[in-house]
Amino acid sequence: MKNRSMLFLLLWLLLPALVWAQTNVPAAEVIAKINRGEAVSYQNVTITGDLDLTQLANKTLQPAKGGQGNWESKEYVSTVTAPVSFINCTFKGNVLAYFNPNYEDGKPKISLKSELNEVYNTNFEKDVRFEECVFERRSDFKYSQFRGIASFAGSTFQEEALFKYSKFSNGIDFSKARFREEANFKYVKFPSAVQFKGASFEREANFKYAAFPEGADFQKATFLGLANLKYARLADPVQWKGAVFKGGQDLKYASMNNSSFSNYALQELTR
After folding, report:
1. Residues linked to residue 256 through DSSP beta bridges, in sequence order
2. Distance (Å, rounded) from C-alpha 269 to C-alpha 242?
3. Element (H or E) spanning 260, and its range?
4. Residue 208 near residue 232, CB atoms below 8 Å
5. What confidence tens digit (pLDDT) does each residue in 85-139 have?
6. CB 200 within 8 A of CB 223
7. How far is CA 157 from CA 9, 95, 130, 185, in A?
8. Count of C-beta atoms within a 10 Å radius of residue 18
9. pLDDT in tens, 145-184
10. What is the pTM of this model?
11. Is-contact 136 113, C-beta < 8 A?
12. 62 Cβ contact partners less than 8 Å away, ≥ 6 residues apart
């Protein structure tokens, strides 16, 4: 009887550690699965450490695109070959599909040493789902190519969401996403209709030079910062009904169906 009581006490003391182990996943574990070519699927867990997708085992140096001598830029590309799914997960560290060693936290490093003229990118061959997730640190997907579905529906980005120059294929979903800092989609051409329905932009929503040739859904989206659509090219069907703009809009040189697009026209479409 005494031994049984001691066993129960030991299990009770170990319970918090067991629960922590079940709900906390090291980023290194995720990377190991990706390097083995396995599908990644997690739900209701916390990912600890930086999820650095730019240094995968299949990282390759791309052919030079130009330049001479020491000024030639080196581009390394890692490829996630299997589907990736995170549902209701929290990322405590950075999530990096883009890395430039000359930058730190999105800002140029101040250094007397010579700069490294290289960049690291990540492409995704299969579906990518980060749904109902929380990114507590940086989420950098600059230049990434998404060849399958790309869904970030319902996710919260605590720092800048960097999708500048990203290339999408289909199933692009940011509905009900919450951007606490800048949402950077500059220069993105959305090849299919993109969902931003119910999204919340608390800082600048940067769609400068972006293209929406197949339309977009911004219904009930909230723009608390600047809605930057300067030089953006939009085409029907674009839905704005119920969208709220509280931080101003920049529609300079923006177009809708190859015609000029004004602030007044935008406000009319939200009714």
Report:
1. 234, 259
2. 9
3. strand 259-260
4. yes
5. 999 999 999 999 999 998 776 677 665 455 668 999 999 999 999 999 999 999 9
6. no
7. 41, 11, 11, 14
8. 10
9. 999 999 999 999 999 999 999 999 989 999 999 999 999 9
10. 0.88
11. no
12. 75, 76, 77
